[in-house]
């Protein structure tokens, strides 16, 4: 029987069960008190696994019939084998009972039953799973509602629950979504996620690919709760008002004072995601948060994207305690809104330096954009598949310890000029076979004086060399914005092949206004050559880097600490101390080092947990 009819069948069983239920299940409220959870599992529910690879299912209720109640559970394996894993006869204390069951993570489905004295067993819930939980939010390249029906059907056949009279992936049985539409109580439902297709809980295309691939590769069920909305920015659309953190239908579409009208009239989007997460009962067990936002330059330019994103991230830390990592997809290069695209891509690149346990992915060079000017900011299904596969490799290595090669995108370390030769240093090897034409790459590089005339481009390990005609340059930018390739009014080329890539084919991150250092000897800069190049630390806390006069050290441990100082030492690459100071321990502690000569240094400081060393780059003032 096809999967859709299977869904209809067991949903009918669920409806029949609710009509026959002789137990009054206890409830409790969470969040702001408006979210009610029952002390029993729901059909299709996923329980997050703990460190022991198990989840805990709680039961509590009341029954006026008999003196005992029997609770039992069955486990069905991927291959179809069924075994009973729990069977307990519980005395009723004035009609009240309570118990718990541990279930194991893996490709197992669980069913739970109760039985009263002299009565037949009653199904409580079926198709229950135990696995991992991720949240996803951002803009339209996360929710991907503009895919055609054919694209959705193809994606759902390969990665999802299929559709009527079509095959489907067996691993989709272990994928879960939660919530449809706005989080009213009637919409707080568990189910199988599909890509923009009625009858299933919607999940964006690359998220569906990622979810399916984790399930298949790790043999663990995965729940992704989505809170994305197209044409939205953080401050105006995602951030809630102070004290308003859970969904309120009276304010969700009400524009806050001072906020300009949005193309998408939805505000306080965090409240929707937060309500879904608490209603699902997984707020304390988020494994990672996936974020892709900023296409077409949507951000609050008054304070900058880093400041804006950190406000959002602080809410996640507050309401989802214990989540491990944040995964941010840098906006991909685009043919319009040059200042917006360049600035936001650079600020997103700097997020790794200012937020602990944040990991970046590049969408540069994925290709398969839509071929209409209005829609080309989005990808076709092949592009979303490619992005999903890149994210799969990244998360399999970061979260599950699977060695997948170079899973992070190359990122710029420094740029320097000697005579008319410019060198750009990256933090990993650039693959010459997978990178696009050097001629096209050079067309993407822009200086503060313009695109300049560039020639003799070559790649050596982690360095890009090329010659410039005009040497009066101080800043360099790469990607983020595609140079105007228009040759006729209706011609444009969103898939222009102009990207550097690593050995896994991942495009280098865009960067903007990186100082071009001047030097007489290349001794300092050749220290950056692979393999001794200082790779970006996974949890670097220094921003900005490079710096001119001062930089900040992010010390989140100092949030509730007073009258404490942190010792800071800066050495040159030979280990000679060139700067030493004590700074007051604040969450963001500033170090003034304007007197240092331009160059590359080691920064040593001690947090409240460990001693740390980072590589910093000092640029000449005005460069």
Could you please describe the fold and organization of this structure?
By secondary structure, the chain is an alpha+beta fold. It is built from twelve helices and 32 strands. Strands 4, 6, 7, 9, 10, 11, 12, 15, 16, 17 and 18 form an eleven-stranded mixed β-sheet that branches. A seven-stranded mixed β-sheet has the order 21-24-25-19-20-23-22. Strands 29-28-31-32 form a four-stranded antiparallel β-sheet, with no helix packed on it. Strand 16 (288-292), helix 7 (305-319) and strand 17 (325-330) form a beta-alpha-beta unit. Helix 4 (205-218) crosses helix 10. Residues 1-19, 520-525 and 527-539 have low confidence and may be disordered.
Secondary-structure blueprint of this entry?
Layout: H1 3-20, E1 24-25, E2 27-30, E3 35-38, E4 46-48, E5 54-62, E6 68-77, E7 82-91, E8 96-104, E9 108-116, E10 122-138, H2 140-143, H3 149-159, E11 175-178, E12 190-191, E13 193-194, E14 201-202, H4 205-218, E15 222-226, H5 234-238, H6 269-280, E16 288-292, H7 305-319, E17 325-330, H8 338-349, H9 351-354, E18 358-362, H10 381-400, E19 412-418, E20 421-426, H11 438-444, E21 445-447, E22 454-460, E23 463-468, E24 475-478, E25 511-518, H12 523-526, E26 542-543, E27 550-554, E28 565-571, E29 577-584, E30 588-592, E31 599-606, E32 611-618
Parallel strand pairs: 4-10, 10-15, 10-16, 11-15, 13-14, 16-17, 17-18, 19-25
Antiparallel strand pairs: 1-5, 2-3, 5-8, 6-7, 6-9, 9-10, 11-12, 19-20, 20-23, 21-24, 22-23, 24-25, 26-27, 27-30, 28-29, 28-31, 31-32
Helix pairs in contact: 4-10
């Amino acid at each position: 029987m096809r999967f859709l009819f299977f869904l209809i069948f067991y949903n009918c069983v669920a409806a029949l069960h609710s009509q026959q239920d002789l137990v009054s299940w206890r409830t409790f409220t969470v969040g702001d008190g408006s979210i009610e959870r029952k002390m029993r599992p729901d059909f299709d529910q996923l329980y997050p696994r703990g460190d022991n690879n198990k989840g805990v299912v709680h039961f509590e209720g009341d029954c006026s019939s008999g003196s005992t109640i029997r609770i039992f559970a069955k486990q069905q394996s991927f291959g179809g084998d069924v075994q009973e894993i729990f069977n307990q006869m519980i005395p009723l204390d004035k009609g009240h009972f309570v118990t718990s069951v541990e279930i194991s993570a893996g490709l197992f489905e669980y069913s739970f039953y109760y039985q009263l004295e002299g009565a037949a067993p009653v199904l409580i819930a079926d198709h229950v799973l135990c696995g991992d939980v991720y949240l996803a939010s951002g803009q339209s390249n996360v929710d991907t509602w503009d895919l055609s029906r054919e694209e959705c059907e193809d994606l759902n056949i390969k990665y999802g629950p299929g559709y009527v009279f079509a095959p489907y992936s067996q691993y989709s049985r272990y994928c879960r979504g939660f919530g449809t539409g706005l989080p009213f109580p009637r919409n707080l439902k568990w189910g199988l996620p599909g890509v923009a297709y009625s009858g299933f809980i919607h999940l964006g295309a690359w998220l569906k690919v990622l979810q399916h691939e984790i399930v298949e590769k790790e043999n663990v069920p995965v729940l992704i709760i989505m809170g994305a909305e197209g044409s939205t920015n953080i401050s105006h659309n995602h951030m809630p008002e102070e004290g308003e953190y859970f969904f309120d239908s009276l304010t969700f579409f009400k524009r806050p004072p001072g906020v300009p009208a949005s193309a998408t009239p939805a505000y306080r989007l965090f409240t929707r995601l937060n309500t879904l997460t608490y209603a699902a009962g997984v707020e304390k067990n988020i494994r990672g948060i996936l974020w892709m936002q900023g296409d077409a330059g949507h951000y609050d330019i008054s304070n900058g994207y880093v400041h804006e994103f950190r406000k959002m991230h602080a809410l996640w830390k507050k309401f989802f305690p214990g989540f491990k990592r944040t995964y941010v997809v840098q906006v991909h290069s685009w043919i319009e809104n040059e200042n917006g695209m360049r600035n936001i891509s650079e600020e997103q690149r700097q997020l790794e330096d200012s937020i602990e346990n944040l990991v970046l992915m590049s969408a540069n060079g994925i290709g398969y954009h839509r071929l209409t000017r209005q829609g080309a900011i989005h990808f076709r299904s092949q592009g979303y598949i490619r992005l999903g596969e890149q994210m799969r490799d990244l998360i399999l290595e970061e979260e599950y310890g699977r060695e997948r090669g170079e899973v992070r995108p190359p990122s710029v370390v420094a740029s320097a000029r000697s005579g008319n030769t410019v060198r750009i240093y990256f933090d990993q090897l650039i693959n010459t076979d997978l990178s696009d034409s050097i001629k096209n790459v050079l067309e993407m590089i822009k200086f503060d004086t313009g695109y300049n005339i560039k020639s003799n481009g070559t790649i050596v390990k982690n360095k890009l060399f090329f010659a410039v005609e005009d040497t009066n340059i101080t800043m360099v930018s790469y990607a983020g914005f595609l140079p105007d390739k228009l040759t006729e009014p209706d011609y444009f080329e969103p898939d222009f092949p102009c990207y550097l890539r690593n050995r896994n084919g991942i495009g280098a991150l865009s960067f903007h206004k990186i100082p071009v250092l001047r030097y007489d000897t290349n001794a300092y800069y050749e220290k950056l050559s692979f393999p001794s190049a200082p790779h970006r630390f996974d949890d670097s806390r220094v921003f900005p880097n490079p710096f001119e006069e001062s930089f900040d050290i992010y010390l989140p441990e100092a949030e509730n600490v007073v009258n404490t100082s942190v010792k800071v030492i800066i050495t040159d690459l030979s280990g000679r101390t060139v700067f030493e100071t004590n700074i007051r321990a604040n969450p963001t502690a500033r170090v003034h080092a304007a007197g240092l000569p331009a160059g590359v240094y080691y920064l040593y400081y001690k947090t409240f947990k460990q001693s740390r060393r980072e590589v910093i780059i000092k640029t000449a003032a005005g460069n």
